[in-house]
Predict the structure.
Amino acid sequence: KHHLPPDRMPKESDMELVATDTVRLRVPSGSMAVLVKNLYLSCDPYMRSRMTKHDEPSYVPDFVPGTAGITVHGLSGYHDTYRFGSSRFSITGYREWQPTLRWLLSIDRRSSALSVMRRIFDIKLIRIKTSEGQVPTSRKEGSFTSNSTNTLCMPGLTAYAGFYEICSPKKGEHVFISAASGAVGQLVGQFAKLMGCYVVGSAGSDEKVNLLKNKLGFHEAFNYKKEPDLNKALKRCFPEGIDIYFENVGGAMLDAVLANMRLNGRIAVCGMISQYNLGKHDGVHNLLALIAKCIRMQGFLVSNYYKCYREFEEKVVRYMKEGKIVYIEDIAEGLENAPSALTGLFAGRNVGKQLIVVARE
Ligand code: NDP
Protein backbone atom coordinates (compact mmCIF):
# COMPACT_ATOMS: atom_id res chain seq x y z
CA LYS A 1 0.00 0.00 0.00
CA HIS A 2 2.82 2.42 0.87
CA HIS A 3 6.57 2.60 1.26
CA LEU A 4 7.85 1.40 4.63
CA PRO A 5 10.40 3.22 6.74
CA PRO A 6 13.64 1.19 6.77
CA ASP A 7 13.50 0.56 10.53
CA ARG A 8 10.25 -1.30 10.91
CA MET A 9 9.04 -4.85 10.41
CA PRO A 10 6.53 -5.23 7.57
CA LYS A 11 3.00 -5.87 8.81
CA GLU A 12 0.13 -7.60 7.09
CA SER A 13 -1.77 -4.30 7.12
CA ASP A 14 0.95 -2.79 4.90
CA MET A 15 -0.48 -4.92 2.10
CA GLU A 16 -3.89 -4.99 0.55
CA LEU A 17 -5.74 -7.48 -1.62
CA VAL A 18 -7.48 -5.69 -4.44
CA ALA A 19 -10.06 -7.10 -6.86
CA THR A 20 -9.98 -5.50 -10.28
CA ASP A 21 -12.41 -5.59 -13.15
CA THR A 22 -11.69 -7.89 -16.02
CA VAL A 23 -8.84 -6.44 -18.00
CA ARG A 24 -9.56 -6.00 -21.69
CA LEU A 25 -6.62 -6.23 -23.97
CA ARG A 26 -6.75 -4.75 -27.40
CA VAL A 27 -4.27 -6.68 -29.43
CA PRO A 28 -3.22 -4.90 -32.62
CA SER A 29 -2.97 -7.26 -35.53
CA GLY A 30 0.47 -8.77 -35.82
CA SER A 31 1.17 -8.40 -32.09
CA MET A 32 1.13 -11.06 -29.50
CA ALA A 33 -0.63 -11.32 -26.16
CA VAL A 34 0.00 -13.86 -23.47
CA LEU A 35 -2.28 -14.58 -20.57
CA VAL A 36 -0.24 -15.66 -17.60
CA LYS A 37 -2.01 -17.69 -14.97
CA ASN A 38 0.04 -17.69 -11.82
CA LEU A 39 0.32 -20.97 -9.98
CA TYR A 40 3.02 -20.59 -7.35
CA LEU A 41 4.34 -17.28 -6.07
CA SER A 42 7.77 -17.17 -4.54
CA CYS A 43 8.04 -15.34 -1.21
CA ASP A 44 11.55 -14.06 -0.49
CA PRO A 45 13.35 -11.94 2.13
CA TYR A 46 14.81 -9.57 -0.51
CA MET A 47 11.26 -8.26 -1.09
CA ARG A 48 11.54 -6.35 2.20
CA SER A 49 14.22 -4.08 0.77
CA ARG A 50 11.94 -3.30 -2.16
CA MET A 51 9.23 -2.09 0.22
CA THR A 52 11.34 0.90 1.26
CA LYS A 53 11.96 3.74 -1.16
CA HIS A 54 15.67 4.23 -1.75
CA ASP A 55 17.44 7.35 -2.95
CA GLU A 56 20.04 5.33 -4.84
CA PRO A 57 18.96 2.65 -7.32
CA SER A 58 19.49 -0.85 -5.94
CA TYR A 59 20.11 -4.15 -7.75
CA VAL A 60 16.32 -4.60 -7.80
CA PRO A 61 13.89 -1.70 -8.21
CA ASP A 62 11.75 -0.50 -5.30
CA PHE A 63 8.13 -1.58 -5.38
CA VAL A 64 5.64 0.98 -6.55
CA PRO A 65 2.78 1.13 -4.00
CA GLY A 66 -0.21 -0.62 -5.47
CA THR A 67 1.88 -3.18 -7.35
CA ALA A 68 4.19 -6.04 -6.43
CA GLY A 69 6.77 -7.41 -8.80
CA ILE A 70 8.13 -10.76 -7.77
CA THR A 71 8.93 -14.15 -9.10
CA VAL A 72 6.00 -16.28 -10.06
CA HIS A 73 5.49 -19.47 -11.86
CA GLY A 74 3.01 -20.61 -14.38
CA LEU A 75 1.82 -19.60 -17.74
CA SER A 76 -1.01 -20.31 -20.02
CA GLY A 77 -1.34 -18.50 -23.27
CA TYR A 78 -0.63 -18.86 -26.89
CA HIS A 79 2.45 -18.48 -28.98
CA ASP A 80 4.76 -20.79 -30.89
CA THR A 81 7.04 -21.13 -27.90
CA TYR A 82 4.47 -20.64 -25.17
CA ARG A 83 1.86 -23.20 -25.87
CA PHE A 84 -1.48 -22.93 -24.17
CA GLY A 85 -1.20 -24.59 -20.80
CA SER A 86 2.57 -24.79 -20.74
CA SER A 87 4.34 -23.72 -17.54
CA ARG A 88 7.24 -21.38 -17.09
CA PHE A 89 9.07 -19.45 -14.47
CA SER A 90 8.47 -15.76 -14.97
CA ILE A 91 8.62 -12.42 -13.25
CA THR A 92 5.26 -10.76 -12.92
CA GLY A 93 3.31 -9.70 -9.85
CA TYR A 94 1.47 -11.08 -6.83
CA ARG A 95 -1.73 -11.61 -8.74
CA GLU A 96 -3.88 -14.42 -10.09
CA TRP A 97 -3.82 -13.50 -13.74
CA GLN A 98 -1.48 -11.33 -15.71
CA PRO A 99 -2.76 -10.48 -19.16
CA THR A 100 0.23 -9.09 -20.94
CA LEU A 101 0.56 -7.61 -24.32
CA ARG A 102 3.86 -8.47 -25.91
CA TRP A 103 4.91 -10.06 -22.68
CA LEU A 104 8.10 -11.58 -23.98
CA LEU A 105 9.23 -8.40 -25.62
CA SER A 106 8.49 -6.30 -22.58
CA ILE A 107 10.60 -8.57 -20.42
CA ASP A 108 13.41 -8.47 -22.94
CA ARG A 109 13.42 -4.71 -22.97
CA ARG A 110 13.45 -4.11 -19.24
CA SER A 111 17.08 -4.99 -18.60
CA SER A 112 19.69 -7.34 -19.82
CA ALA A 113 19.57 -9.13 -16.47
CA LEU A 114 15.92 -9.90 -16.87
CA SER A 115 16.29 -11.09 -20.40
CA VAL A 116 19.06 -13.44 -19.32
CA MET A 117 16.82 -14.64 -16.54
CA ARG A 118 13.95 -15.26 -18.90
CA ARG A 119 16.10 -17.29 -21.20
CA ILE A 120 17.77 -19.30 -18.53
CA PHE A 121 14.83 -19.93 -16.30
CA ASP A 122 12.68 -20.82 -19.21
CA ILE A 123 13.08 -24.29 -17.90
CA LYS A 124 11.32 -27.44 -18.73
CA LEU A 125 9.46 -29.02 -15.90
CA ILE A 126 11.04 -32.16 -14.68
CA ARG A 127 9.05 -34.70 -12.82
CA ILE A 128 11.03 -35.73 -9.82
CA LYS A 129 10.06 -38.46 -7.45
CA THR A 130 11.18 -37.65 -3.95
CA SER A 131 11.08 -40.28 -1.29
CA GLU A 132 8.18 -40.14 1.08
CA GLY A 133 9.10 -39.44 4.66
CA GLN A 134 8.10 -37.77 7.87
CA VAL A 135 7.68 -34.08 7.24
CA PRO A 136 5.79 -31.63 9.41
CA THR A 137 2.10 -31.36 8.68
CA SER A 138 1.12 -28.75 6.11
CA ARG A 139 4.70 -28.81 4.91
CA LYS A 140 5.86 -31.08 2.21
CA GLU A 141 8.65 -32.02 -0.12
CA GLY A 142 8.82 -30.16 -3.40
CA SER A 143 6.39 -31.22 -6.11
CA PHE A 144 7.42 -31.20 -9.73
CA THR A 145 5.76 -27.87 -10.32
CA SER A 146 6.95 -26.04 -7.24
CA ASN A 147 10.47 -27.43 -7.72
CA SER A 148 10.63 -25.15 -10.68
CA THR A 149 10.12 -22.18 -8.38
CA ASN A 150 12.66 -23.06 -5.73
CA THR A 151 15.04 -26.02 -5.88
CA LEU A 152 15.68 -25.53 -9.57
CA CYS A 153 15.23 -21.81 -9.47
CA MET A 154 16.47 -18.78 -7.53
CA PRO A 155 17.02 -20.28 -4.04
CA GLY A 156 18.62 -23.40 -5.50
CA LEU A 157 21.00 -21.46 -7.69
CA THR A 158 21.83 -19.17 -4.76
CA ALA A 159 22.78 -22.15 -2.63
CA TYR A 160 24.75 -23.71 -5.46
CA ALA A 161 26.71 -20.61 -6.49
CA GLY A 162 27.26 -19.49 -2.91
CA PHE A 163 28.58 -22.84 -1.79
CA TYR A 164 30.56 -24.13 -4.76
CA GLU A 165 31.73 -20.83 -6.27
CA ILE A 166 32.26 -18.63 -3.21
CA CYS A 167 33.14 -21.07 -0.42
CA SER A 168 35.68 -23.19 -2.39
CA PRO A 169 34.73 -26.22 -0.27
CA LYS A 170 36.90 -29.26 0.31
CA LYS A 171 36.04 -32.68 1.61
CA GLY A 172 36.23 -32.94 5.38
CA GLU A 173 35.90 -29.22 6.04
CA HIS A 174 33.71 -27.85 8.82
CA VAL A 175 30.72 -25.92 7.51
CA PHE A 176 28.28 -23.73 9.43
CA ILE A 177 25.02 -22.37 7.96
CA SER A 178 22.67 -19.88 9.63
CA ALA A 179 18.93 -19.79 8.82
CA ALA A 180 19.76 -23.36 7.84
CA SER A 181 16.25 -24.73 7.44
CA GLY A 182 15.21 -22.03 4.97
CA ALA A 183 14.96 -21.98 1.22
CA VAL A 184 18.68 -21.51 0.63
CA GLY A 185 20.18 -22.93 3.82
CA GLN A 186 18.64 -26.41 3.58
CA LEU A 187 20.26 -26.94 0.19
CA VAL A 188 23.66 -25.56 1.19
CA GLY A 189 23.72 -28.04 4.05
CA GLN A 190 22.88 -30.94 1.78
CA PHE A 191 25.48 -29.91 -0.82
CA ALA A 192 28.09 -29.71 1.94
CA LYS A 193 27.10 -33.10 3.28
CA LEU A 194 27.35 -34.63 -0.20
CA MET A 195 30.86 -33.21 -0.46
CA GLY A 196 31.86 -35.02 2.71
CA CYS A 197 31.97 -31.99 4.99
CA TYR A 198 30.98 -31.80 8.65
CA VAL A 199 27.79 -29.71 8.62
CA VAL A 200 26.08 -27.72 11.37
CA GLY A 201 23.10 -25.37 11.08
CA SER A 202 21.34 -22.88 13.31
CA ALA A 203 17.61 -22.20 13.25
CA GLY A 204 14.99 -20.45 15.35
CA SER A 205 12.85 -23.32 16.68
CA ASP A 206 13.14 -26.87 17.96
CA GLU A 207 10.97 -28.05 15.07
CA LYS A 208 13.49 -26.65 12.60
CA VAL A 209 16.45 -28.09 14.52
CA ASN A 210 14.76 -31.48 14.44
CA LEU A 211 14.22 -31.15 10.70
CA LEU A 212 17.87 -30.27 10.13
CA LYS A 213 19.17 -33.24 12.08
CA ASN A 214 16.60 -35.89 11.25
CA LYS A 215 15.40 -35.03 7.77
CA LEU A 216 18.07 -32.97 6.05
CA GLY A 217 21.07 -34.90 7.37
CA PHE A 218 22.96 -32.15 9.21
CA HIS A 219 25.47 -33.55 11.72
CA GLU A 220 24.47 -30.99 14.36
CA ALA A 221 22.07 -28.11 14.76
CA PHE A 222 21.11 -25.66 17.49
CA ASN A 223 18.25 -23.30 18.27
CA TYR A 224 19.85 -19.84 18.48
CA LYS A 225 16.81 -18.43 20.27
CA LYS A 226 17.23 -20.89 23.12
CA GLU A 227 20.99 -20.47 23.25
CA PRO A 228 21.67 -16.75 23.29
CA ASP A 229 25.35 -17.44 24.09
CA LEU A 230 26.15 -18.09 20.41
CA ASN A 231 29.87 -18.33 21.07
CA LYS A 232 29.28 -21.20 23.49
CA ALA A 233 26.93 -22.99 21.09
CA LEU A 234 29.45 -22.70 18.25
CA LYS A 235 32.32 -23.90 20.45
CA ARG A 236 30.29 -26.94 21.41
CA CYS A 237 29.47 -27.80 17.79
CA PHE A 238 32.90 -26.84 16.42
CA PRO A 239 35.56 -27.59 19.03
CA GLU A 240 38.15 -27.37 16.23
CA GLY A 241 36.65 -24.29 14.57
CA ILE A 242 34.79 -23.44 11.36
CA ASP A 243 36.26 -23.53 7.84
CA ILE A 244 33.23 -22.26 5.96
CA TYR A 245 30.40 -20.03 7.11
CA PHE A 246 27.38 -19.57 4.84
CA GLU A 247 26.00 -16.29 6.15
CA ASN A 248 22.25 -15.72 5.97
CA VAL A 249 21.54 -13.64 9.08
CA GLY A 250 24.35 -11.21 10.05
CA GLY A 251 24.55 -9.29 13.34
CA ALA A 252 25.43 -11.17 16.53
CA MET A 253 25.72 -14.48 14.68
CA LEU A 254 28.40 -13.13 12.36
CA ASP A 255 30.34 -11.79 15.34
CA ALA A 256 30.24 -15.13 17.12
CA VAL A 257 31.24 -17.00 13.96
CA LEU A 258 34.22 -14.70 13.34
CA ALA A 259 35.52 -15.63 16.78
CA ASN A 260 35.29 -19.32 15.89
CA MET A 261 36.70 -19.37 12.36
CA ARG A 262 39.79 -21.34 11.48
CA LEU A 263 42.88 -20.20 9.61
CA ASN A 264 42.16 -19.64 5.88
CA GLY A 265 38.38 -19.85 6.43
CA ARG A 266 35.81 -18.59 3.93
CA ILE A 267 32.60 -16.70 4.58
CA ALA A 268 29.99 -16.45 1.80
CA VAL A 269 27.78 -13.47 2.60
CA CYS A 270 24.47 -14.46 1.06
CA GLY A 271 22.16 -12.42 3.25
CA MET A 272 21.80 -10.67 6.62
CA ILE A 273 18.12 -11.00 7.41
CA SER A 274 18.52 -9.90 11.04
CA GLN A 275 19.43 -6.45 9.68
CA TYR A 276 16.69 -5.94 7.09
CA ASN A 277 14.24 -4.24 9.44
CA LEU A 278 16.78 -2.11 11.32
CA GLY A 279 17.38 1.42 10.13
CA LYS A 280 20.83 1.43 11.70
CA HIS A 281 22.69 -1.82 11.30
CA ASP A 282 24.34 -3.69 14.18
CA GLY A 283 28.06 -3.15 14.52
CA VAL A 284 30.26 -6.21 14.07
CA HIS A 285 33.16 -6.29 16.52
CA ASN A 286 35.32 -9.24 15.53
CA LEU A 287 36.36 -8.20 12.03
CA LEU A 288 40.03 -8.24 13.02
CA ALA A 289 39.75 -12.03 12.84
CA LEU A 290 39.70 -11.62 9.05
CA ILE A 291 43.32 -10.50 9.17
CA ALA A 292 44.71 -12.73 11.87
CA LYS A 293 43.09 -15.87 10.45
CA CYS A 294 43.48 -14.92 6.76
CA ILE A 295 39.73 -15.33 6.18
CA ARG A 296 38.12 -14.57 2.83
CA MET A 297 34.68 -12.99 3.26
CA GLN A 298 32.75 -12.37 0.05
CA GLY A 299 29.26 -11.16 -0.73
CA PHE A 300 27.48 -12.31 -3.87
CA LEU A 301 24.26 -11.94 -5.82
CA VAL A 302 22.60 -14.91 -7.46
CA SER A 303 21.94 -12.78 -10.54
CA ASN A 304 25.67 -12.82 -11.29
CA TYR A 305 25.66 -16.61 -11.52
CA TYR A 306 23.00 -17.38 -14.13
CA LYS A 307 25.89 -18.56 -16.26
CA CYS A 308 26.16 -21.56 -13.92
CA TYR A 309 22.52 -22.49 -14.43
CA ARG A 310 22.99 -25.45 -16.77
CA GLU A 311 25.64 -27.18 -14.66
CA PHE A 312 23.59 -26.45 -11.56
CA GLU A 313 20.45 -27.91 -13.08
CA GLU A 314 22.23 -31.02 -14.30
CA LYS A 315 23.80 -31.70 -10.92
CA VAL A 316 20.76 -30.95 -8.77
CA VAL A 317 18.31 -32.87 -10.95
CA ARG A 318 20.63 -35.86 -10.74
CA TYR A 319 20.85 -35.56 -6.96
CA MET A 320 17.07 -35.30 -6.73
CA LYS A 321 16.43 -38.26 -8.98
CA GLU A 322 18.89 -40.30 -6.94
CA GLY A 323 17.05 -39.28 -3.76
CA LYS A 324 20.16 -37.56 -2.41
CA ILE A 325 18.44 -34.24 -1.87
CA VAL A 326 15.14 -33.47 -0.25
CA TYR A 327 13.52 -30.06 -0.21
CA ILE A 328 11.06 -28.76 2.32
CA GLU A 329 8.60 -26.12 1.29
CA ASP A 330 5.95 -24.25 3.22
CA ILE A 331 2.94 -23.44 1.09
CA ALA A 332 0.43 -20.75 1.97
CA GLU A 333 -2.94 -21.26 0.32
CA GLY A 334 -4.36 -18.42 -1.72
CA LEU A 335 -3.36 -14.89 -2.58
CA GLU A 336 -5.13 -13.60 0.53
CA ASN A 337 -2.48 -15.32 2.64
CA ALA A 338 0.46 -13.69 0.84
CA PRO A 339 0.85 -10.84 3.39
CA SER A 340 1.06 -13.29 6.28
CA ALA A 341 3.51 -15.46 4.34
CA LEU A 342 5.77 -12.50 3.62
CA THR A 343 5.75 -11.10 7.16
CA GLY A 344 6.27 -14.64 8.45
CA LEU A 345 9.74 -14.76 6.90
CA PHE A 346 10.91 -12.12 9.37
CA ALA A 347 9.30 -13.85 12.33
CA GLY A 348 10.69 -17.24 11.31
CA ARG A 349 7.22 -18.74 10.77
CA ASN A 350 8.19 -20.46 7.53
CA VAL A 351 9.68 -23.93 7.71
CA GLY A 352 11.51 -24.41 4.44
CA LYS A 353 10.91 -22.46 1.26
CA GLN A 354 7.88 -20.17 1.52
CA LEU A 355 5.57 -20.33 -1.46
CA ILE A 356 2.04 -19.15 -2.06
CA VAL A 357 -0.16 -21.29 -4.23
CA VAL A 358 -2.80 -19.33 -6.13
CA ALA A 359 -3.83 -22.10 -8.51
CA ARG A 360 -2.88 -25.73 -8.98
CA GLU A 361 -2.04 -26.23 -12.63
P1 NDP B 1 14.42 -18.38 4.51
O1 NDP B 1 13.58 -19.38 3.84
O2 NDP B 1 15.60 -18.86 5.30
O3 NDP B 1 13.48 -17.48 5.43
C1 NDP B 1 13.98 -16.52 6.28
C2 NDP B 1 14.43 -17.14 7.64
O4 NDP B 1 15.35 -16.24 8.24
C3 NDP B 1 13.30 -17.26 8.65
O5 NDP B 1 12.56 -18.44 8.49
C4 NDP B 1 14.06 -17.23 9.96
O6 NDP B 1 14.45 -18.56 10.28
C5 NDP B 1 15.32 -16.42 9.64
N1 NDP B 1 15.26 -15.12 10.32
C6 NDP B 1 14.29 -14.18 10.19
N2 NDP B 1 14.57 -13.11 10.96
C7 NDP B 1 15.74 -13.41 11.60
C8 NDP B 1 16.56 -12.71 12.55
N3 NDP B 1 16.23 -11.48 13.00
N4 NDP B 1 17.69 -13.31 12.98
C9 NDP B 1 18.03 -14.54 12.55
N5 NDP B 1 17.31 -15.25 11.65
C10 NDP B 1 16.18 -14.69 11.19
O7 NDP B 1 14.96 -17.33 3.45
P2 NDP B 1 15.87 -17.64 2.18
O8 NDP B 1 16.53 -18.96 2.32
O9 NDP B 1 15.10 -17.32 0.97
O10 NDP B 1 17.02 -16.52 2.33
C11 NDP B 1 18.09 -16.70 3.25
C12 NDP B 1 19.02 -15.51 3.16
O11 NDP B 1 19.60 -15.48 1.86
C13 NDP B 1 18.31 -14.17 3.34
O12 NDP B 1 19.16 -13.32 4.09
C14 NDP B 1 18.14 -13.66 1.93
O13 NDP B 1 18.06 -12.27 1.87
C15 NDP B 1 19.41 -14.21 1.29
N6 NDP B 1 19.35 -14.38 -0.17
C16 NDP B 1 20.37 -13.83 -0.90
C17 NDP B 1 20.45 -14.02 -2.24
C18 NDP B 1 21.61 -13.46 -2.98
O14 NDP B 1 21.58 -13.42 -4.23
N7 NDP B 1 22.64 -13.01 -2.29
C19 NDP B 1 19.39 -14.76 -2.97
C20 NDP B 1 18.39 -15.38 -2.10
C21 NDP B 1 18.39 -15.16 -0.74
P3 NDP B 1 14.79 -18.97 11.83
O15 NDP B 1 13.54 -19.52 12.41
O16 NDP B 1 15.87 -19.96 11.66
O17 NDP B 1 15.20 -17.72 12.53
